[in-house]
Amino acid sequence: MSTLTMENIKTKYRDAKRDALIPILQDLQAEQGYLAEESIREVSRMLALPLSKIYGVASFYNQFRFQPIGKYHVVICRGTACHVKGSVALLRSLRNELKIEPGQTTRDGLFTLDTVACIGACGLAPVVCVNGEFHAKMTPDKVASLISTLRSENEK
């Protein structure tokens, strides 16, 4: 994280107390894409909170991550409608195609795979979301094709 960004956070939250911890972490993650260790240390100093408290709060909420995500953030819905319509097979296909498990990023930094309990698009089930773009009524073949297309686009 750049010093300028941390300075902006310090200015925005000049007189902040511990009740500002979550908004501060949200702003940091929005800026960095994840919560870097040095940023967490700086927040600890800024709010006079132990690192264990900050990590405890940040690890409790699944919105926070401690590692950068890939260029393509692939999220598969595991909600009831998607499950019934085959999301287990989609997840298996994504694991095989990307050679990673949910919560991991490929070595080349291109893909991060995650699952969610429900993505809120039940009528489109099963759904895979890539960088916020929904892909509806997916099949294992469509998933493989999607990943292949994204890889090709990255090579251009």
Précis, in short:
By secondary structure, this protein is α+β, with helices and mostly antiparallel strands. It contains seven helices and four strands.
Q: How much of the residues is beta strand, in percent?
A: 5-15%
In helices, the fraction of residues equals: 40-55%
List how many beta strands DSSP finds: 4
Strand order of the largest sheet: 2-1-3-4
Question: What is the CATH class designation of the largest domain?
Answer: Alpha Beta
What's the architecture of the largest domain, going by CATH?
Answer: 3-Layer(aba) Sandwich
Structural class: alpha+beta
- Count of helices? 7
Biggest sheet, in brief? 4 strands, mixed
- Determine the CATH superfamily of the largest domain: Glutaredoxin
- Any low-confidence stretches, pLDDT <50, length ≥5? none
CATH-derived topology of the largest domain: Glutaredoxin
Rg from alpha-carbon coordinates: 18 Å
The best one-word shape is elongated
Through-space gap between termini: 29 Å
- The figure for the number of domains is 2
* Mean pLDDT level: 91
Element order: H for helix, E for strand: HHHHEHHEEEH
Can you offer a commentary on this structure?
The chain folds into 2 domains: 3-60, Arc Repressor Mutant, subunit A (Orthogonal Bundle), CATH 1.10.10; 72-155, 3-Layer(aba) Sandwich (Glutaredoxin), CATH 3.40.30. A 4-stranded mixed β-sheet has the order 2-1-3-4, with helices on one face. The chain has 7 helices and 4 strands, in the order ααααβααβββα. The chain has 156 residues and is of the alpha+beta class. Helix content is 49%, strand content 12%. Helix 2 (21-32) packs antiparallel against helix 3 (37-47) and helix 6 packs parallel to helix 7. Strand 3 and strand 4 form a beta hairpin. 22% of the residues are buried. The longest helix is centred in the last third of the chain and has 16 residues, at 140-155.
